Amino acid sequence: MSRLTLGQKADRVLKLLLGMRNARVVSALTTRGFGQDDLEEGWSLLRNVAKGHFDYLPTENTDPSVIAELDLWENTWFPIVSASLSRRFPKVAERVFLNLSQTEGPGVVLSVGTFIERIDEVAKATDEDSRQAMALLTRRGLTEQVLSQAKTLLVAVKQTVGVVPLDPATQREEYARAEQALWDWYLEWSQIARSTITERQLLRSLGFLNVARGVSDEEDATCWQTSRSAQI
After folding, report:
1. Is the pTM for the entire model greater than 0.90?
2. 137 within 8 A of 33, measured Cβ to Cβ
3. Closest listed residue to residue 142, CA positions, set 116, 114, 107, 117
4. Separation between Cα atoms, residue 86 and residue 94, nearest integer Å
5. Per residue, what are the HEC states of the chain?
6. What is the pLDDT of residues 12-52, one digit of tens each?
């Protein structure tokens, strides 16, 4: 099996985490010591690799007026978008707000930046739900002009004197560590789940036995061993 990309790994982790919301899955895994802290660890590790890849960090010297404007933008649009999508397009809402919530201070640079990236991804998607979701958000007032306001503020943060660029080598190392930590978590709990759960419907809900994607059961079942060997 060829080496999995970060996107493919994140997709497998997300499917596993979403499947873990099933009460029967949780009941089975608790017999192996699975708890809320393990679930939260998975979401936290996924967030670390899913957040926007910014090449800068705001410091205490960053213009506070820019941060304040970003904070106001976030406080206005996060609730509107969440309320608009949650009932009509829950899957799109889940994609946009996965482990994303309102914050304050310099943290809004990350939260708004990630939000903008995800909205742009929805806008580029060709499925009907995404198209209708973007049409709804435009009616709600989230126009290109409004999105551009946030993008301009994010650029302004980069141009602020207090901005500290991340060394490219350091950045790559951080990304690599985040990816490895996420995959290690997946390898552990996916193997435990495969060994504990026998009901095929539950296994499919966890992202295993993905015949629909052209992957045979046998091929999918050996994913863990193959991935583990590739790391040694």
Report:
1. no
2. no
3. 116
4. 8
5. CCCCCHHHHHHHHHHHHHHCCCHHHHHHHHCCCCCHHHHHHHHHHHHHHHCCCCCEECCCCCCHHHHHHHHHHHHHHHHHHHHHHHHHCHHHHHHHHCCCCCCCCCHHHHHHHHHHHHHHHHHHCCCHHHHHHHHHHHHHCCCHHHHHHHHHHHHHHHHCCCCEECCHHHHHHHHHHHHHHHHHHHHHHHHHHHHHCCCHHHHHHCCCCCHHHCCCHHHHHCHHHHHHHHHC
6. 898 898 889 899 999 999 999 999 999 999 988 888 776 64
